[in-house]
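Tokens in:
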């Protein structure tokens, strides 16, 4: 009994050591950043081959229900750095922004029993969660911010996902190559699985550092999925859809940067 147990422990330890080494190697490749470097083919392949390993590591080293580290108020950065789109130019967004987001409606649909539309006031009236967390961008910078919002789990409870729903898809307002000039949808999008969607720290944030979420950081609503990297934190959320697969959506990889070669599970 005891001997088998000791053996298993040793094997487990070796596996962890191996995985950590691989994680470090994959991590240094990731430092290259959310930029056009990912158009490079071999760079994209490196990321893809690291993906399975990375997801395995996340599970062994920190099981997914674990909480991301939270910080004290004194550690909050003066200004939260913005990245990616900083002010969407898409006409529908500009109109909403110019009216102070009074006409904003979060659409929640797809594979759900009860599709839903929520105003910002309705979102703010739901029970909220506040968390001080560190955002890590693959470009190699981090920033600590205080976020307030509604847990995504609570929204899911309201819409009642169907049994076949596997992922939550976020469709954003911002076109990445300028407002859809050629009619092709180039708006930012992201997806997470239901495990992460139900995680206590996964929130739809409408406040940053005790103020309404600034346009720079994704007004009026952005996702915080704290166990994952910066590009998974969808800003300017237009709608949420429950889906069973993202294979038929855009590039088929589950997100704007994923279609450019980033891994789908951006675990930290
Ligand atoms: N809609 C949208 N969401 C987005 C992006 C974007 O360009 N558009 N950039 C991503 C990346 S790479 C990062 S690091 C973070 C930046 O969030 P911040 O501007 O609040 O720092 O948003 C992520 N979510
Ligand atoms: Mo990023």
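Residues out:
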């Amino acid at each position: 009994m005891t001997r088998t147990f000791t053996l298993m422990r040793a094997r487990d330890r070796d596996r962890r050591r191996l995985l950590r080494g691989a994680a470090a190697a994959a991590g240094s490749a990731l430092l290259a950043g959310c930029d056009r470097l990912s158009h490079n083919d071999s760079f994209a392949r490196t990321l893809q081959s690291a993906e399975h390993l990375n997801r395995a590591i996340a599970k062994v080293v920190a099981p997914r229900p674990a909480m991301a580290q939270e910080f004290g108020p004194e550690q909050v950065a003066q200004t939260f750095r913005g990245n990616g789109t900083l002010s969407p130019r898409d006409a529908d967004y500009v109109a909403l922004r110019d009216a102070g987001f009074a006409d904003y409606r979060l659409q929640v649909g797809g594979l759900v029993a009860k599709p839903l539309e929520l105003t910002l006031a309705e979102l703010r009236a739901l029970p909220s969660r506040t968390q001080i967390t560190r955002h890590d961008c693959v470009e190699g910078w981090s920033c600590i911010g205080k976020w307030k919002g509604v847990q995504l789990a609570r929204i899911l409870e309201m819409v009642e996902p169907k049994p076949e729903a596997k992922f939550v898809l976020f469709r954003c307002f911002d076109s990445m190559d300028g407002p859809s000039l050629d009619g092709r949808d180039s708006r930012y999008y992201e997806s997470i699985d239901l495990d992460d969607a139900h995680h206590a720290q996964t929130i739809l944030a409408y406040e940053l550092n005790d103020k309404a979420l600034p346009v720079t950081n994704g007004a009026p609503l952005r996702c915080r999925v704290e166990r994952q990297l910066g590009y998974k934190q969808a800003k300017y959320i237009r709608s949420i859809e429950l889906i069973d697969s993202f294979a038929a959506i855009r590039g088929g990889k589950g997100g704007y940067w994923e279609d450019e070669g980033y891994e789908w599970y951006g675990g930290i």
